[in-house]
Structures are given as structure tokens and as C-alpha cells.
Amino acid sequence: MNSKSVSSAKVSKDKEIVVQSNSISRGIYSCSPTARKLIAYCILKINHYPENLNSSVYTNIDVLHHFKSSFSISEFINRLGISKGSNTYKQVKRAVEELSTSVIQVENTEEKYKAYTWFSSATYDKTKDLIELDFNPQIGLAIQEWKEIKQFSAMNIKTIGEIQSFFALRYFELACSFYNMKGRYGNKKNEWKFTLKVDEIKTMFKIDKDAYKDRMNNFITKVVKNPLEEVNKVNKDFQISYAKIVENHKTVAFEFTCSQAEILKIESTDSAEEISEKQMINQEELEIQHYKTKFPEQWEEAVRTAKLQNELPFEMEMVTDARAVDILKAQGL
After folding, report:
1. Strand ranges inside 27-177, DSSP E
2. pLDDT at 188
3. Which three-class secondary structure state does DSSP give residue 196?
4. How many C-alpha atoms does 129 have within 13 Å on its Cβ side?
């Protein structure tokens, strides 16, 4: 075997980044949070071994691809911040068992259906402190196809470890998959947006189509609001807010806005006055992001009110946002 290791991890000074194709990030699947974290760590640790085949058995195949991830159980638990307790190892073992049969759909339309199992083999050995997983070759190739098509999601493994629910993990990877739209296609400098219909969310998250029928408020709370609050609580790279899209008095979709706070860097050459001014601006920016993501519906209403209060012949977004913050503070939020 010609062993050529190709890692999907990009390592910086303070981060380890899981990089995967957007076809994976936007795939249709469901699994436990621990299983999803295990997939992410396998991608981080993946080794790609192409093997040339001369056997006549493989007359139509030039290369057999192996995508193997191998690491200790204790390493996975520590790196992903899995809560340690009497059932921790059982929890990880269940996740490995789950992934040996779990399926991801990468395409599901009226015309086409394409799905794969995540892994072709799975090993959990507590006595050897070992987890070894072989990706299904089709999934392995899909994970790494970002190198050619340049459509990828880059996710901080630390953030993945800190997120606890499956829906929150899905929103995090979906948001990362649209990052290349930041500041482009009409988006503001530090923002990017994506829209999902209610039915699309149910499909992608494998939620039964009849679930939450006539209970949209419950759907918004459990499937949208709470998971996004969880992401925003632990994710330091960006914040996600949402707005309902309503047609005929019915919520049919959501527009998600991902925002990176534009924090001014304080330089060693800055004067005391410049430092104070930058700190004030940074605090204002962080407050705006807090209210946008923590109280999305109230924020929209506050912005509308702030615009009505504008007495200038033109609108300044910075002033409108600051006024909206004051409105929400006055409401006790």
C-alpha cells in the first residue's frame, strides 16, 4: 500500500479546524450528539490511503480508497469535552455502534435519491483504549472533495465539543457551509445569510413531516430558537440570528443571519484616549450582537421603532442599531 496521509485538519495556534465538503454539511441525517462529535473527530484525524490494484477482480477500478481514523477513546473524551462519569465509556460505545449503521442522504428529490452509510467498519476496544473507524469510500471522497470544488465548511473542533444538542450542531455546520457568502451577494461586510423552508429543516434534521403540525410556536422554540441560543452561547467565531418568513399568516421559512462582530484592535501605540474610544465602540458592537441573537423578534421590532424615530433625512445603520439597543434596555431586556 502506498501510504499517503492527507489530513482534513487545519491547525492554527489556538484552533483545530475540521474541514469537510458542503455536501456533508447540508446532508440529510440524524444521530446522537456524541455520534456527530465522533464523526467530526474522525474527519479531523482522517488518513487517506489510495491503493493501486492490479488484480483482475477490480478490472474497472484503478484505485481503492481507504479513509481510516484511529485514536484512543480517552483522547476523544478529553478533546471533545465529553462529560466524565460512570456511563461515559458506554455512551461512546453506543455512538460507535450507532455509526456502524447510520446513513446520510446527500441527495433526495423526486428525481434522485443518493444515500450512504457513514462507515464501512467500526471498532471499539476499551481494553486497548482504541476507536478505529473506516469511512465508506464514497463518504470519504465526499468529505475531501472540497479540495477540488472549493466548497467547504471549516468548523472549530472545540466549539463542536461544547455544543450539546444535535439541532445546535446541525445549525453550526450549516452556518459554516455558507461562510463563503460573507460580505458578498448583497451581504454586509461581516455578515452572511441563508434561508431554509420549514419543510427543508424537517427533512435535513430527519424530523417527521407531521411533527409540530399546527404547533409552529413549539417548532420555533424547540427546533430554531433554543438550538441557536446554544450555538451563540459557546461559539466565539460568529453569532446566528433568525427572522420568520410569513406568507398568508403562516410561517413558511426562516432567514438566518450570521454575524461577526467587528472588533477594533487596540494597538500598543494607541493613546489613552484612542484606547478608551475603541473599547467603547467594541462594547457597543458586542451589545448589538447580543440583542440581535438573544432577542431576534424583539430586535426586529426595536429596529422598526428606531427607524420611525429617525428625524434625519437619511438613515445611519449604526445610529439605528444603537437606538434599538436603548429601546430594548428600556424594556428591561
Report:
1. 47-52, 63-71, 103-108, 113-117, 119-125, 130-135, 152-156
2. 86
3. strand
4. 6
Residue positions counted in the chain = 333
DSSP string, 286-305: HHHHHHHHHSHHHHHHHHHH
C-alpha closest to that of 42 among 70, 15, 64: 70
For range 128-132, the mean pLDDT: 96
Burial pattern 280-298, b for ≥16 Cβ within 10 A else e, equals eebeebebbbbbbbbbbee
CA distances from 163 to 73, 229, 235 (A): 19, 11, 9
- Say how far apart CA 191 and CA 195 lie, in whole Å: 14
Whole-angstrom distance, CA of residue 179 vs CA of residue 131 = 32
Percent of the residues in the chain that have a pLDDT greater than 70, as a whole number: 84
Question: Is 113 a residue whose pLDDT tops 90?
Answer: no
Q: Identify which of 73, 70, 8, 11 has the alpha carbon closest to the alpha carbon of residue 43.
A: 8
In this structure, the dihedral spanned by the alpha carbons of residues 209, 213, 217 and 218, taken in order and rounded to 10 degrees, is -70
To the nearest 10°, the Cα dihedral for 121, 125, 131, 137? -10
C-alpha span between 328 and 320 (Å, rounded): 12
Report yes or no: 9 and 16 within 8 Å, Cβ to Cβ. yes
94, burial (CB in 10 Å: exposed 0-12, middle 13-18, buried 19+): middle
Q: 3-class DSSP state for residue 331?
A: coil
Instruction: Provide the mean pLDDT of the chain.
Output: 83
Pairing of strands 239-247, 191-197: unpaired
CB 169 within 8 A of CB 33: yes
Segment 319-330 mean pLDDT: 85
What is the enclosing helix (H) or strand (E) of 318?
A: helix 317-330
191: Cβ–Cβ under 8 A, 6 or more apart, which residues?
A: 182, 183, 257, 258, 259, 260
Residue 196, amino acid:
L
Residue type, 301: E
- Tell me the pLDDT tens digit for each residue of 44-69: 898 876 665 455 554 454 556 678 99
3-state SS assignment for residue 227 = helix
Sheet strands side by side (includes 9-11): 9-11, 16-21, 152-156
